[in-house]
Design brief:
The chain has 393 residues and is α+β, with helices and mostly antiparallel strands. It has helices spanning 12-22, 48-56, 60-66, 83-86, 98-112, 158-162, 233-243, 294-310, 315-345, 349-364, 372-375, 383-389, and strands at residues 3-8, 28-31, 45-46, 69-71, 73-76, 79-82, 93-95, 115-117, 121-126, 132-137, 140-151, 168-169, 174-182, 190-196, 201-209, 212-220, 254-255, 260-263, 267-268, 273-274, 277-279, 285-286. The protein has 2 domains: 3-70 and 93-169 and 266-333, FAD/NAD(P)-binding domain (3-Layer(bba) Sandwich), CATH 3.50.50.60; 174-263, Alpha-Beta Plaits, CATH 3.30.70.2450. The strands form 4 sheets. Strands 1, 2, 8, 9, 10, 11, 20 and 21 form an 8-stranded mixed beta sheet that branches. Strands 5, 6, 13, 14, 15, 16, 17 and 18 form an 8-stranded mixed beta sheet that branches. A hairpin with a 2-residue loop joins strand 15 (201-209) and strand 16 (212-220). The protein is globular.
Length: 393
């Protein structure tokens, strides 16, 4: 075989896995389509449970030294949570400009010994023993074999489709709009979240350092058109203020990047391994970005797959072990997010009655809320946790 791993995608998932495996002596090829990473509206805050995964993968120091801003505080109206003190990882949030993070980790993988083909497109995968990956570099096609082909090529994964994985998808419910600012009138050591369940809207702002901030506004997909482009900057501020963010936060700020919107349902491929092809990151499961767990979930995938592959020479068995474990923790995270969506974003008389019962109790005791920020998929989300969250016990 040409490689031990042939990885389609050089972003967070592909570069982190490439780095993790090449350091153990395996031959790794990373295929990255973009000649240079560019700004798109994507997650730029890695929650404390994801920062713990970064540490377990040996990535934490490189991220904090090269591109990430560690953030200690998570601020909501009336609450200022010390993330490191209240999360099992003992870490805060890691915030970064997404293209800088991608390039940082890709450089790290290459410096550790991974082979990079860029720009090149993974156009086809042929499952089997061994699986084959077909690449296109300019006008030239190249075929490589590997012990394992890894689809790390995002939410719209071509590898997933080519290998025949079925994709499940939640109904569209929320739209997230995001943009970059300079000079917001808020501190740079705290994430700001304002959640207004009475109008089913959320505003969340991540400081990136150097006076830059990534701001998001989330709202139901039936409550207004998506926001995009410079002409909708004022409408974005209006949406953020309607969620509850003070207008003075935006008064002296300057837009510093594109404004775009996207739908935010969970999507997933059940058991993301088959016949020599394994999926990680958004290709395996894209978590609802309203809750900001996507980056952390990706590194959980990388760490679990790495550990499984290093534990045995039977890589097919290891990939099946990873896929079964992925199904377990993604289902747990999906359930936690579904509980939050039900309480904070559902509409109608039953939803209003549920909020009238639950919110006063949560205001008295915030531990009623399943803590996906600190615990991710390990947050209690069983029937007892649901009853407690909904104020029924």
């Amino acid at each position: 075989m040409d490689y031990d791993l042939a990885i389609a995608g050089g972003g967070l998932a592909g570069s982190a896995l490439g780095f993790a495996l090449v350091r153990s002596g395996f031959r790794v090829l990373i295929v990255e389509r973009e000649p240079a990473f560019r700004d798109r509206v994507r997650g730029e805050g890695m929650l404390p449970w994801g920062a713990g995964e970064a540490r377990a993968l040996g990535l934490l120091d490189a991220l904090t030294e090269r591109c990430a801003l560690p953030v200690q505080w998570f601020t909501t109206p009336g609450s200022n949570r010390d993330l490191a003190a209240t999360s099992p990882s003992g870490l805060g949030c890691l915030n970064f400009y997404h293209p800088d993070m991608q390039q940082c980790l890709l450089d790290l993988a290459v410096s550790a010994g991974a082979e990079l083909t860029r720009p090149a497109e993974a156009i086809q995968v042929v499952p089997g023993d061994p699986p084959r990956l077909i690449l296109r570099e300019g006008d030239t096609e190249r075929r490589v074999t590997a012990r394992l082909v890894v689809g790390a090529d995002g939410r719209n994964s071509r590898i997933r489709a080519a290998a025949g994985f079925a994709l499940s998808k939640d109904p569209d419910r929320m739209v997230v709009a995001g943009t970059l600012y300079r000079g917001l009138a808020i501190p740079e050591d705290a994430i700001q979240m304002v959640l207004n369940p009475m109008v089913q809207r959320i505003s969340i702002i991540f400081p990136l350092g150097g006076g830059r901030f990534r701001a998001y506004a989330g709202f139901r997909d039936d409550s207004g058109r998506p926001l995009r482009g410079a002409e909708d900057q004022a409408a974005f501020v209006t949406a953020s203020v309607r969620a509850g963010s003070p207008p003075e936060w935006f008064a002296g700020a300057t837009p510093d990047g594109l404004l775009a919107s996207f739908a935010a349902p969970d999507t997933w491929a059940a058991h993301p391994y088959r016949d020599g092809v394994v999926l990680i990151g958004d290709a395996a499961a894209a978590s609802d970005p309203v809750f900001g767990c996507g980056l952390s979930l990706t590194l959980r995938d990388v760490r679990v797959l790495r550990d499984a592959l290093l534990a045995t020479s039977d890589w097919r068995g290891a990939a099946n072990t990873y896929a079964a474990e992925h199904d377990r923790y993604f289902a747990a995270l999906h359930r936690t997010h579904s509980l939050w969506r039900t309480l904070f974003f559902d509409v109608g008389e039953p939803a209003d009655a549920r909020r009238a019962r639950a919110l006063p109790k949560i205001a008295e005791d915030e531990t009623r809320m399943p803590d996906f920020i600190g615990l991710g998929p390990d947050a209690p989300n069983d029937a007892a946790a649901e009853r407690r969250f909904f104020g029924e016990g």
